[in-house]
Each structure stands twice: as structure tokens, then as C-alpha cells.
Specification:
By secondary structure, this protein is an alpha+beta fold. Helices cover 32% and strands 30% of the residues. It has helices at 6-15, 18-65, 69-78, 89-93, 95-109, 114-124; strands at residues 144-148, 153-163, 166-176, 185-190, 193-204, 210-215, 225-233, 241-247, 253-256, 267-271, 282-289, 295-300. A six-stranded antiparallel β-barrel has the order 1-2-3-6-5-4. The chain has a six-stranded antiparallel barrel with strand order 7-8-9-12-11-10. Strand 1 and strand 2 (153-163) form a beta hairpin. Helix 1 (6-15) packs antiparallel against helix 2 (18-65) and helix 5 runs antiparallel to helix 6 (114-124).
Length: 305
């Protein structure tokens, strides 16, 4: 007997008696519900295993660094600023996450925590204690930017200042823009993510610098866009893989998976430019995969907005 497709079975069921048709629909619905149930159970088991792995690694690092009661107490305070408190392991392994959380804690408490500098030095070495000035201020100076100008060129550079809706970009590199639909838009990379603005006008200051007037609507624009040439850094790898990032109107971000190597729950870093300083690379977590495993849904940053 030839195998029937699902659509053929449904069509044949419609020609049967009402009782047989109802039974056919019931079987199909049962199969779908079983598939959903198995998927939920798998996600639960996968998540529980991940939590156990994180807890085991966290306890191992506590012993490795010989952290004191006071240092552990400070980490517990910093955990409150994580999107996922269960991932407090990030505070010990990820310098950016630790410094951002410490900056937010000091801002909220309106005091300096000297122990934070001591702990940063213990975890990340001497450079770990150097908290960049104004770290908690999003999209400030030093951030990599990419401008798709209306003159048919793409300008990559570094933001050196911003006054209201005027952004000054220096150290620019210029190349042709083959994507004409992307004209008149500015992308800014920050440790929290990648944000985009419409551009009202561009003024050339010198061969290496531009002044860009943006249309700032006060929140992330709900637009559908894509951005190629994104550098994806895997843990322990210094050389990035290139990919394309997608922006969706509902605030979702997706990325083409380089070499099919991303897995759900995996942490990576993104950058607009390969030479971007590590402090400004974007922390991203793979929160979902497409059915064909070609695209990954991303959540930017580990710190609450």
C-alpha cells in the first residue's frame, strides 16, 4: 500500500462519514499535541541540564579564585542586574558583564564599591579594574558605527561624540553600497546591542570625519532590516566568522548561522568591525533556532535594560 501524505489523509477523511472524519481529525490533533509535548519536555530537560552545568562550573570557579564571603555577597548583589539570575557564572567569566553590573549597582546605590575593583582585578587581571568612564550610558563615545549614506557609500567609523540628535563619527572607512534599500540609515554598536536610526542629513567635516543628524524617536525603531558583514566571535576563538543580522518589527533579532555551528543556549559576541575593542563587542545568547538550523534568534546582552 502506498504511503499517504497528511493532506491526502485529511482529504480522504472529509469524504468519510462524520464519525470517521472526527476520528481522523482526533488522531491528527493527538499527533500534533504529542509532538508539542515531547518538544516541551526536551526543552525542560535541556534547560535543567544547562542550569546544573552552570552551577557546577560556578562552584568550581569560586574555589579556583578562592573568593571570600564579602566577594560572594557582592556577586549576589550584581546578580540582580542579570536578565537571567541563574547565569551568575557570567559575572565571573565575562568582564563586560561584571563591569556593567557593577556600574549599575554603584549608580543605584550612589556610592563606590572598592571591593568591586579588587574583585575585578582578581578575576580579570589589572585591566579588569579599569571601568570605562560612563559605562552605563548607552551608545556614548567610542562606539563603532556604520552609516548607509544616500550618496551610495557605506561609512564605517567610531562615534566620538553625541549632542542630542547630532552624532560625530571619526576614523571613517568608505566603500560602495550595493544595497540601495539601506540608504539613509545609521547603525551603532554598543555592549548592549545594535541600534539603528534614520538619518536626516550628513555633513562632511574632513576626509576622516562626518557629522550625522539622526531622527531619534526615543526608542528602538520597529523596522525590518538586515545588516551583512557582522563579525561573530565564538568562545575561545579570536578570528570571527562573518554573518548577516536581521532586525524585525517586533524587536526580534535573528542571524544566519555561520557554518551551522550555533546551538540553543550558546553565548557568542558580535561586532560591526573586526578591529573593534573587546570591551564593546556585543554579548548575545542564542534563544532559539529555525527548523532548518540556518537561522538563530538572538537575545542581546546579559544585563537588564
Amino acid at each position: 500500500m502506498d504511503r499517504k501524505t497528511l493532506l491526502q489523509a485529511i482529504a480522504e477523511g472529509m469524504r468519510n462519514t462524520p464519525e470517521e472524519a472526527f476520528l481522523s481529525v482526533l488522531i491528527i490533533v493527538s499527533v500534533i499535541l504529542l509532538f508539542i509535548l515531547v518538544s516541551i519536555i526536551y526543552q525542560y530537560v535541556f534547560r535543567k541540564r544547562k542550569l546544573n552545568d552552570w552551577a557546577k562550573e560556578y562552584n568550581g570557579l569560586i574555589r579556583k579564585y578562592d573568593l571570600t564571603i564579602n566577594e560572594l555577597d557582592l556577586i549576589d548583589k550584581l546578580v540582580l542586574f542579570l536578565i537571567e539570575p541563574q547565569r551568575k557564572l557570567l559575572l565571573i567569566k565575562n568582564k563586560n558583564t561584571f563591569l556593567q553590573a557593577l556600574s549599575l549597582l554603584e549608580k543605584r546605590e550612589r556610592q563606590i564599591f572598592p571591593l568591586g575593583k579588587v574583585l575585578a582585578t582578581k578575576l580579570f587581571g589589572q585591566e579588569g579594574a579599569l571601568v570605562p568612564k560612563g559605562l552605563h550610558i548607552p551608545y556614548g563615545s567610542g562606539r563603532p558605527v556604520r552609516l548607509f549614506s544616500t550618496d551610495g557609500f557605506i561609512y564605517s567609523g567610531i562615534q566620538i561624540s553625541r549632542k542630542k540628535d547630532i552624532i560625530t563619527v571619526d576614523h571613517i572607512k568608505k566603500r560602495n553600497n550595493e544595497n540601495k534599500k539601506q540608504q539613509g540609515r545609521l547603525f551603532i554598536q554598543d555592549y548592549k546591542g545594535i541600534i539603528t536610526f534614520q538619518v536626516e542629513r550628513v555633513r562632511k567635516l574632513s576626509e576622516n570625519s562626518l557629522q550625522v543628524q539622526i531622527i531619534d524617536k526615543g526608542s528602538r525603531e520597529k523596522v525590518k532590516l538586515s545588516l551583512s558583514g557582522i563579525c561573530v566571535y565564538y568562545p575561545g576563538e579570536e578570528e570571527p566568522l562573518l554573518s548577516r543580522l536581521y532586525f524585525f518589527p517586533n524587536g526580534t533579532y535573528m542571524i544566519e548561522i555561520p557554518n551551522g555551528a550555533l546551538k540553543q543556549g550558546q553565548a557568542v559576541k558580535l561586532a560591526l568591525r573586526e578591529e573593534t575593542e573587546k570591551i564593546y563587542r556585543v554579548n548575545a545568547l542564542v534563544s532559539g533556532l529555525s527548523l532548518n538550523k540556518r537561522y538563530a534568534r538572538l537575545t542581546f546582552g546579559y544585563i537588564k535594560s
